[in-house]
Write a structure and sequence with these properties.
The structure is a single chain. Helices cover about 45% and strands about 20% of the residues. By secondary structure, the chain is α+β, with helices and mostly antiparallel strands. Strand 2 and strand 3 form a beta hairpin. Helix 2 crosses helix 3. It starts with a helix and ends with a helix. About 15% of the residues are buried.
Length: about 130
């Protein structure tokens, strides 16, 4: 019995130490950090060669926050879902030529609202492929 209690206390101590050294950040802070990484590694390099990129997020639970942040930066955003649940896939688009401010220094109009598309399941893709020929 004493051995089990000491193992349990050791596991609890390890969890406590882990939480002290790896604090949980608020969702908004995590989303902002993800957007910075995605911009640096994927979006900016893609902008050199085209006007869109598809991102697969490591944290699908942050899809809404990340989509909102990209939208606020002026990107066109499409969120892919399956059965109403975000899949962690985002399509980002941007204009080929940057928009110039309107007369009087007003900013250009905002981008379209965030689109949400439903990803078809394997059966729906099979039927679609079957009848598309």
């Amino acid at each position: 019995m004493n051995i089990q209690i000491s193992k349990l206390m050791t596991a609890q101590d390890a969890a406590h130490i882990h939480d002290q050294h790896n604090p949980r950040l608020p969702r908004t802070v995590e989303a902002e950090q993800q957007v910075e990484v995605l911009l640096e590694k994927w979006v900016r390099p893609a902008a050199r060669t085209g006007t869109s990129v598809q991102l697969n997020l490591a944290r699908p639970d942050l899809t809404g926050e990340i989509a909102s942040l990209f939208h606020s930066l002026g990107y066109g955003v499409t969120v892919w879902k399956r059965g109403g649940t975000p899949t962690g896939v985002l399509d980002l688009t941007w204009p080929a030529v940057p928009q110039k401010p309107l007369p009087g220094g007003r900013p250009p109009p905002p981008t379209d609202p965030i689109r949400q598309e439903d990803t078809p399941g394997p059966f729906a893709r099979f039927i679609s492929n079957l009848f598309s020929r």
